[in-house]
Amino acid sequence: MKRLIVLAFVGCCMLLVACNEDKRTYDYYIPTPIEGWERNDTLHFSIPPQQRGTYLMNMGIRTTLSFPYQDISIIMEQGIYPKGKTRKDTIRCQLFGEEGKPMGQSGISSNDQSFYIRTLELNNNDSLHVTLYHCMRRESLPGISAIGLQLIAE
């Protein structure tokens, strides 16, 4: 009898885990030097071929309190292949509030924020190549520990 109860409990747990479907098809962070992300240090993301569908693209930024500004401006260049379609945007992300309080999820030594970038319509086997670099006044930005991209199937 005990064995039957344990098996039923394990079965229920497996069903609950199976219902939690993660729709992320790409989620990757590239670390940057905390002492200073240089303007000419371009980050490259190669997103593998995807299935036909609609995707949300988000960008994640991990910062420390040594970041000297309230926001950051980043240039994103995106190419969809094999179409050869390219797009270039400037993205402005608010990282800290008026009183210098970090926005987003705060950890022990860093802050993590996610920003919606756009919705993409992709065909079967479309892949993406995305490059990111900052366009701030300072040549070197301290306090950025990592930048990431996330692709989520709708």
How would you describe the overall organization of this protein?
Strand 7 (105-106) and strand 8 (111-122) form a beta hairpin. 12% of the residues lie in helices and 55% in strands. 22% of the residues are buried. The model is unreliable at 13-17 (pLDDT under 50). It has one helix and eleven strands, in the order αβββββββββββ. The protein has one helix at residues 2-19, and strands spanning 24-31, 37-38, 43-50, 53-63, 71-81, 85-94, 105-106, 111-122, 126-134, 140-141, 144-153.
Quick tags:
1 helix; about 150 residues; 5-stranded antiparallel sheet; globular; single chain
Oligomer: single chain
- Report how far the terminal alpha carbons are from each other: 44 Å
Q: Number of helix segments?
A: 1
Portion of residues in helices?
A: 10-25%
In total, the number of strands is: 11
Strand residue content: over 45%
Q: From the alpha-carbon coordinates, what is the Rg to the nearest angstrom?
A: 20 Å
Summarize it.
The chain has 154 residues and is mainly beta. The chain contains one helix and eleven strands, in the order H-E-E-E-E-E-E-E-E-E-E-E.
What's the structural blueprint in terms of helices and strands?
Layout: H1 2-19, E1 24-31, E2 37-38, E3 43-50, E4 53-63, E5 71-81, E6 85-94, E7 105-106, E8 111-122, E9 126-134, E10 140-141, E11 144-153
Antiparallel strand pairs: 1-11, 2-10, 3-9, 4-8, 4-11, 5-6, 5-9, 7-8
